[in-house]
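Hi R.,

Here's the chain you asked about this morning:
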Amino acid sequence: MTGPTRAQIPERTLREDRWWLAPLATFVVFAVGAGVKGGYHGRWPGLANTYDADLAVTTDYRNVLADVVEARFGASSATVFPGLKRSRVGFM
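And here is the predicted structure, written out as tokens:
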């Protein structure tokens, strides 16, 4: 009697399916330091209206970085991120 073996997944599946992309594209931004307001900043979209239980994007990461650029460096976010429709996140 032999022991359990791993499931045999055809190599082509790894190239054609994109099951690995969602975990790579999902991220959370943690901000730590002086001047950072604690708490959760964002909007929870829930899982009810999503296909395949993926979270909807609610915040453009460039808005998070624009808050840092303006608060810490005093630079214009319009210069650093041209074309960005600015929406303050409010964590700084």
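One quick note: The radius of gyration is 20 Å.

Cheers,
M.
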